[in-house]
Design goal:
heterodimer; A: 710 residues; mainly alpha; two-stranded parallel sheet; 1% strand; B: 191 residues; Recoverin, domain 1; 2 strands; 57% helix; small GTPase binding (chain B); EF_Hand_1_Ca_BS (chain B)
C-alpha cells in the first residue's frame, strides 16, 4: 500500500533539484499532524493520506502499550454502542422521511417549522405522561371515590335536568362533546377530581395535582431558555464588528440538501432577492445618515405615529374580545345556539386574522425598508395574539371570581353561576377546551375551504385576476404564531383541564399532515429567504412569551384565588397553594420545616440577589475587556501582515539584484498578476501535479516563520 | 474473501468507520450507491474498491444533480491526477464530510476548498464573484448587476478580510463561519 503522498515525494525528488524550503515545510507539516491529538476522522485529507498518517502515528511493528490497546478497545465498544443507539432512534424517529423530503424541496427554513411541530408534539406527550403518572395513576391505585359533582342537598338544587326529546339525543351528545359538557364529569376537567382529607401516610394527590403543572411549566421554561441562548449568542448581542451580515449570508445560504431542480431555482431566486434587498438597505442607510435633522425628526414622528395607531387598533381588538367573552358568559346556559357558545373563540380568530392584514397595509403605506416592515408587522402580530389570549383568560376569570364566594347569589343568577353549579374552574376549563377545538377546526377550514379552492381556481381559470392572486404563500412566521398560540392555550389550561396536552398532541399530529399536504400541493414558497437559525430563535422567543402569558395568571390563581366549594381537590382551602404548607406540616419534622421556611424568607434571597449582581458586574466588565483586547489584536494582525509583505518585497528585490532573473518568491498583494501556486496554498492538494509545500492552517505564520530562517 | 457479492469485509468496515464520520449503515449504503454507478462487469468487491467513476456519472446522483457547486465538489474530493474521477474512498470522504456527525471545522475547511474556484488557497475577488454567480443562478433577472456585484464583494471583503490583504484565507473564512449557527445544518448531504 504505497501511499499516494510518498509516491509523489519520491518522483518529485527525482525530477528536479530539491526545493529545500518546500521540503522543510512539508516535513514540518507532517510532524505537526502526527503529533496532534486530532482524531483521524477530523483531518481534512483524502483517505489514503489519513492511512499514511495513521501509519506514521503508530507504526505497525511497534508494540503499543497496554493503555493504548485498552483505549482502542473501549473506543470500538463505544462506537458499536453509538451505532446501535442510532439505529434504535431511527426506528422511533417520527416523520424523518417527511422532514427529509420537505428539506430537499424547500430548504431548511421551512423544514425548521415542521421540526418545531414535532418538538411541540413530543413536549405535550411528555407533559401528559408526567401528569398521568403523578396524578391519574395514584388516583386509580388508591381507589378514590368515583369522579362526579358533589351533591349538596342543602341548597335544594334540582337533581336532574329536564328530559330531552329523543330525536335530538344524538345531536345533543355530539354538541355536548364539543362544548365540553359531556366530559365535565370525567377526569378531563378539574371539577371531577376527588380525594379524602390529607393524611401524612398516603400519597398526596392534591400536592401532585398542584405541583405537576408548575413543574411542567418550569421544565419548559428551562428547556426553551437553554435553546434560545444557544442561538442568541450568535445573533443579537454582537456588535457590528462581530456580526458579518453579508459574508455569512454569502457563505452559508446555500442548502446542500436540496435535491430538485425547481427547488434549486427557487432558492437561487430568493438568495438573489435577499442580496439585492441587503444592498438596497445599505444604500438607504448611507442616504439616511446624510439626512438633515428636520427630515430625521419627521421620520421619527411618523414612525411613532404609526406605532400608536397600530397600538390603538390592538387595544380595540382586545376590548372587543373582552366584551364578547362577557356577553357569552352572561348567556351561557340559555340557549345552545352556535353563535353564543363559540362566540369568544370566533371573535378572537376574527381579530387575529384581520389584525395582521391591517397592520401590513398600514406599514406598507409608510414605505419603510423591507426588513423593518416585516419585523414591525411580526412584532405587532405577536403582541396581538398573546394579549388576546391573556385578555380572554382575564375576562373569564373576572366573571368567575366575581361570583364565587358571594353569599348573595341573586346577582349571579343571570350569569349562570348559581350555587348548585358553582364550579368556575370547570367553566374556565371548558372555555379553553372549546378554544383549542375551535383553533384546530379553523385551521382545517382554512386549509380545505380557502387554500385548496384558491389553488384549484388559480390553476384552472385564466384571467388577469387569477394570475395576480396566485397560490397562497406559505408564511412560516404566521404558522408558527398559530401553533404557539395553541400551545399557550394548552399551558393555560394545565390546571383546569389536565388532559388537555393529550388532546393538543393529537391535534398537532393531524396538523403536521395537513400542513405538509398544503405546502406540497396548494402553496408556493415565499420569495423571502427564511434562514433556519433566525427561525429557531424567533420560535423559541415567541414560545417563551407564550409561556409567560400562561404562567402569570396560573401563579396568581394558585396563590390567591379561593377555589370552588363544591368541586375539585382544593375545596377546603383558602387558596390551592395552602396545600403545600399543610403537607409540609404533616409530613416533615420541625427542623426540616424550619429549613424550608428559611428558603422562602427574605434573609435567604437578599444575599443571593447581591451575589448575582456582583457576578453580573464581573461578567460585563470581562466582556468589555475582551472586546478591547480583540480590537487591539486585529490592529496588530493588520500591522504584522503589512510588515510581512514589506519583507517579501525586499527579499525578492534583493534576489533579483543578486542572481536569478525570475523571482521565485511570492509577490505582494499590490502586484497580484503572477502569484506562483507553489508557495502559498492554504492546504494540501493530493492531486496537484507539481510541488508539495503544505501549509495547512494559517498561511502567514508559516511563511513568516520560514523567512525568519533566512 | 472469495465471494463476488458486494459485502464489505468487517475489517474494512471498521477501518472506514475509524477514518470517516459515517456509521456502518451509511457506509454500506454508500457502497451500494457507488456500485450502481459502475458498469456491470466491475460490480464485484475488489473492482468496486479499485475502479474510478468519472465525474459525469457522479453528477447524475440525485443528491448532487441540482447543486450549483457539484463540479467543484467532485473536483475537490477527487484524488486522480486530472481530478476528474472519484474512487470509492473519495466517495466515502465526500459523504463523510457532508454527514451529520462531521465537525464544523472539517466542514468549513472543505467549504473553503469548494468555494476556491481557482485553487490557489485564498478567496480573491474572482472567486467571490464566481461564488455569488453560482448562488444567484444564471437567469437574467436573478444575476446581480456589475455595480451590485462590486458593492457586494467590497462588503464581504470589508467584513471578513481581517488582515486587509484583499483576499480571504482559511482562518478568516473559518472565523466568519463560526459566527453563523446555520452552517452545520445547511452543509449537509444525506444519502
Amino acid at each position: 500500500m504505497a501511499s499516494f503522498l510518498l509516491r509523489q515525494r519520491s518522483t518529485q525528488s527525482d525530477l528536479e533539484p530539491p526545493e529545500s524550503l518546500g521540503e522543510v515545510l512539508w516535513e514540518e507539516e507532517v510532524e505537526r499532524i502526527c503529533s496532534t491529538k486530532v482524531a483521524l476522522q477530523a483531518l481534512p485529507y483524502a483517505m489514503m493520506d489519513k492511512r499514511l498518517i495513521r501509519h506514521l502515528r503508530e507504526p505497525d511493528g511497534v508494540k503499543t502499550s497496554f493503555w493504548e490497546q485498552w483505549k482502542k478497545k473501549w473506543q470500538r465498544v463505544h462506537q458499536q454502542f453509538l451505532d446501535v443507539s442510532h439505529r434504535l432512534m431511527g426506528i422511533f424517529g417520527l416523520w424523518k422521511t417527511d422532514l427529509y423530503e420537505i428539506g430537499g424541496l424547500f430548504g431548511t427554513g421551512i423544514q425548521s417549522y415542521f421540526t418545531f411541530l414535532r418538538f411541540l408534539m413530543v413536549l405535550n406527550l411528555l407533559t401528559f405522561l408526567l401528569t398521568s403518572s403523578l396524578v391519574l395513576l395514584p388516583l386509580a391505585w388508591l381507589h378514590s371515590p368515583e369522579p362526579g359533582p358533589a351533591l349538596n342537598t342543602s341548597y335544594h338544587c334540582p337533581t336532574s335536568r329536564e328530559p330531552q326529546p329523543d330525536l335530538s339525543r344524538i345531536h345533543l351528545h355530539l354538541w355536548d362533546v364539543f362544548t365540553g359538557r359531556a366530559l365535565s364529569n370525567t377526569y378531563l376537567f378539574y371539577g371531577s377530581y376527588r380525594m379524602g382529607p390529607e393524611s401524612d401516610s398516603q400519597y398526596s394527590v392534591r400536592l401532585a395535582y398542584l405541583l405537576s403543572p408548575l413543574t411542567c411549566l418550569l421544565l419548559c421554561f428551562c428547556g426553551t431558555v437553554r435553546r434560545m441562548v444557544k442561538g442568541l449568542l450568535h445573533k443579537r448581542l454582537l456588535s457590528r464588528d462581530y456580526r458579518p451580515r453579508l459574508s455569512s449570508k454569502v457563505f452559508v445560504s446555500w442548502d446542500f440538501c436540496i435535491r430538485s431542480r425547481e427547488a434549486a431555482t427557487i432558492k437561487q431566486h430568493s438568495i438573489s432577492n435577499e442580496f439585492k434587498i441587503e444592498l438596497q438597505e445599505e444604500q438607504r442607510t448611507l442616504q439616511m445618515q446624510q439626512q438633515t435633522r428636520k427630515q430625521r425628526a419627521r421620520q421619527l414622528l411618523s414612525y411613532v405615529g404609526l406605532n400608536m395607531i397600530i397600538g390603538l387598533l390592538v387595544v380595540g381588538g382586545i376590548s372587543a374580545i373582552y366584551w364578547a367573552t362577557k356577553f357569552s358568559q352572561n348567556y351561557k346556559d340559555e340557549s345552545l345556539s352556535l353563535l353564543l357558545q363559540y362566540m369568544s373563540p370566533g371573535v378572537i380568530s376574527l381579530v387575529n386574522n384581520l389584525g395582521p392584514l391591517l397592520f401590513g397595509f398600514l406599514v406598507q403605506l409608510e414605505n419603510y425598508p423591507p426588513n423593518t416592515e416585516i419585523n414591525l408587522t411580526l412584532f405587532w402580530c405577536v403582541v396581538l395574539k398573546l394579549s388576546s389570549l391573556g385578555m380572554f383568560l382575564f375576562s373569564l376569570r373576572q366573571q368567575a371570581v366575581l361570583c364565587s364566594g358571594r353569599s348573595d347569589h341573586s346577582s349571579c343568577e343571570p350569569h349562570g353561576y348559581n350555587q348548585c353549579d358553582q364550579c368556575w374552574e370547570n367553566s374556565v376549563g371548558q372555555e379553553l377546551y372549546k378554544l383549542s377545538i375551535f383553533d384546530f377546526f379553523l385551521m382545517l377550514a382554512f386549509a380545505f375551504l380557502i387554500t385548496l379552492p384558491r389553488r384549484l381556481l388559480v390553476d384552472h381559470l385564466s384571467g388577469q385576476f387569477w394570475v395576480w392572486l396566485g397560490r397562497e404563500e406559505f408564511l412560516v412566521p404566521k404558522n408558527v404564531l398559530d401553533i404557539v398560540a395553541g400551545q399557550t392555550i394548552t399551558w393555560m389550561g394545565l390546571f383546569y383541564c389536565p388532559l388537555l396536552p393529550l388532546l393538543t398532541s393529537i391535534f398537532i399530529f393531524f396538523t403536521f399532515y395537513v400542513k405538509k399536504y398544503t405546502l406540497l400541493r396548494n402553496c408556493r414558497p415565499s420569495p423571502r429567504l427564511f434562514q433556519a437559525s433566525s427561525a429557531t430563535f424567533f420560535f423559541q422567543l415567541v414560545l417563551l412569551l407564550g409561556l409567560l402569558v400562561a404562567s402569570v395568571p396560573l401563579l396568581y390563581v394558585i396563590s390567591s384565588i379561593p377555589s370552588s366549594v363544591n368541586c375539585g381537590l382544593f375545596s377546603n382551602y383558602s387558596a390551592p397553594w395552602q396545600v403545600v404548607p399543610e403537607a409540609m406540616a404533616l409530613r416533615l419534622s420541625p427542623s426540616a420545616q424550619k429549613v424550608f421556611y428559611y428558603f422562602g424568607s427574605n434573609t435567604f434571597w437578599y444575599p443571593i440577589l447581591i451575589l448575582l449582581s456582583l457576578t453580573l458586574t464581573v461578567c460585563l466588565s470581562q466582556s468589555g475587556a475582551n472586546k478591547r483586547a480583540i480590537k487591539g489584536l486585529r490592529r496588530q494582525l493588520l500591522w504584522q501582515v503589512r510588515e510581512k509583505w514589506h519583507l517579501v518585497e525586499d527579499l525578492s528585490r534583493l534576489l533579483q539584484e543578486s542572481g536569478g532573473s525570475d523571482s521565485w518568491g511570492p509577490e505582494s498583494p499590490s502586484s497580484r498578476s503572477s502569484r506562483p501556486r507553489s508557495f502559498c496554498p492554504g492546504f494540501p492538494c493530493p492531486g496537484s501535479p507539481r510541488s508539495r509545500s503544505f501549509m495547512v492552517g494559517s498561511t502567514h505564520s508559516q511563511v513568516t516563520s520560514s523567512f525568519s530562517f533566512l | 474473501m472469495g465471494s463476488s457479492t458486494s459485502h464489505l469485509s468487517k475489517e474494512l468496515l471498521t477501518e472506514y468507520q475509524e477514518l470517516t464520520f459515517l456509521t456502518k449503515q451509511e457506509i454500506l449504503l454508500a457502497h451500494k450507491r457507488f456500485s450502481d454507478l459502475l458498469p456491470q462487469e466491475s460490480r464485484n468487491m475488489e473492482d468496486s474498491l479499485r475502479v474510478r467513476v468519472s465525474t459525469e456519472q457522479i453528477l447524475t446522483l440525485p443528491e448532487l444533480k441540482a447543486n450549483p457547486f457539484r463540479e467543484r465538489i467532485c473536483r475537490v474530493f477527487s484524488t486522480a491526477p486530472e481530478r476528474d474521477s472519484l474512487s470509492f474512498e473519495d466517495f466515502l470522504d465526500l459523504f463523510s464530510v457532508f454527514s451529520d456527525a462531521a465537525t464544523p471545522e472539517i466542514k468549513s475547511h472543505y467549504a473553503f476548498r469548494i468555494f476556491d474556484f481557482d485553487d490557489d488557497g485564498t478567496l480573491n475577488k474572482e472567486d467571490l464573484k464566481q461564488l455569488v454567480n453560482c448562488l444567484t443562478g444564471e437567469g437574467q433577472d436573478t444575476q446581480l448587476s456589475t455595480t451590485e456585484m462590486k458593492q457586494l464583494i467590497e462588503n464581504i471583503l470589508e467584513e471578513s478580510d481581517i488582515d486587509r490583504d484583499g483576499t480571504i484565507n482559511l482562518s478568516e473564512f473559518q472565523h466568519v463561519i463560526s459566527r453563523s449557527p446555520d452552517f452545520t445544518s445547511s452543509f449537509k448531504i444525506v444519502l
